[in-house]
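Input chain follows. Return structure tokens only.
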Amino acid sequence: MKKLLRKDLLSMGFYEKSRFTGSIGQMNYILEKKAKEGEAPLLLATYFPGPFSSENTPDEKKKYHEEPYSEQGFLDMTDFLNCEAEKLNEGSFEEF
């Protein structure tokens, strides 16, 4: 399975106006910037087993993970998504 690299997640500026979707093996993910007034912004990942899109995947199959919206947060998110994809690709959907 190919590993996700930090550069694959594009620049932080991209997330100012858009969300990013991708997949690693059997796992799909959505990354987006979340900001609440008065709080530091976060990088939010929604991840779920493929092959279907988020709209066609039941909410109970989706999981979420947050990291600080910083370069280090993007690096940590890259590592986290790779780890979760490896778990999913080695196991079964029931374990997800």
